[in-house]
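Feature request, filed as a ticket because there's no other form

It would be nice if the structure record came with a short human-readable summary line next to the tokens. Right now we just get the raw output. Example of a typical job, pasted below so the devs can see what we mean:
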Amino acid sequence: MLGWGDDYAAAFAALQQPSWYPARIIRETKINFTVIGVGRGDHEVVLSGKLWHDAVNDADLPTVGDWVAVDPGQGDDLPVIRALLPRRNRFSRKAPGRSCAEQVLGCNVDMVVVVTDASEDYNLRRTERYLTLIRKCGARPVVLVNKVDEADEATLARVRAELEAAGAEVYLIAARWRKGYPKFLRRVPKGQTLMVVGSSGVGKSTLVNSLLGGEWLETGQVNAVTGKGRHTTVARELVVLPGGGVLIDNPGIREVQMWTDAATLRAEFADLSALAEQCRFADCSHRRDAGCAIRAALESGELSPERYEHFLNLENEIAELERRSEKRRMTLERVTRREKRHTLRNRDDREEHRRDLHPNRRG
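Raw output as currently delivered:
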């Protein structure tokens, strides 16, 4: 139930706290969390101060999809999250803006479903970014191309071919008519956790409603002027599906910034990595360097300009993220060293003061 497994059970038992109980986070706010426990229903909890202070960054804090150990407390006090059980995985992107921080969108996910359409929302480069992040997470990537009843056959064939070439598992659907759904989405198996992501207005809420079998979410309309949809899902939330599966729904995502590394990028662009090994220089930038095999493939037509530019953009983006992360790490190290020196200095001052007060006392 809820995706609970032997690994979580072992981690919980190792805490050796018989009065605590395991629960899964289904919603989070700036103040507290809502969890659901086996046989306990959903209820509000708060985070312990120790977990808050021990977290190195926001990615270490509990979030939707996490399993936690909860202390029921006493009297009218809210139950308290005392421990975060080890995660199987986490699906993350870089936080929007100039920050180099990681934003966790969901944890312990078996499958990530990307919803798009074949018209205004379709963007192959953005979908490739999604696929890179999903594979980094270790979940199963699935792409649903919605509103197929509004697109012509030639467009659908092209979109499907492009997505499949990018390594996606693709299904053409009409969410409002519940057509084209693969079997595993018609009734998500018990214990499986899937996450739904995509832009606003592409039919995410319609899909979620159809999976739940009712009008659980408000569905919005696409603005005819901007071509963008309203954010009909306003907060990340986990819900239990009729078949026993679990779904994590996200607000519409317009910006998919990379949270990955060079190794994952090379895996996503294995064909370009193989070409790069043929470049004359090991530090080839693949732009104007002499003897560049990737540029040669581009000029011969073997490599499309779009895929080439996407590769360079992602490479630059990840390099910038790693540069900022390293700068942040060095800053934290300097702060830590300064705090340690300050602590030692205070300790020495206290020891000197103690000796002044008690000159004949040893130790």
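Something like this underneath would help us a lot:
DSSP finds ten helices and 13 strands in the chain.
Residues 154 and 160 are 10 Å apart (CA to CA).
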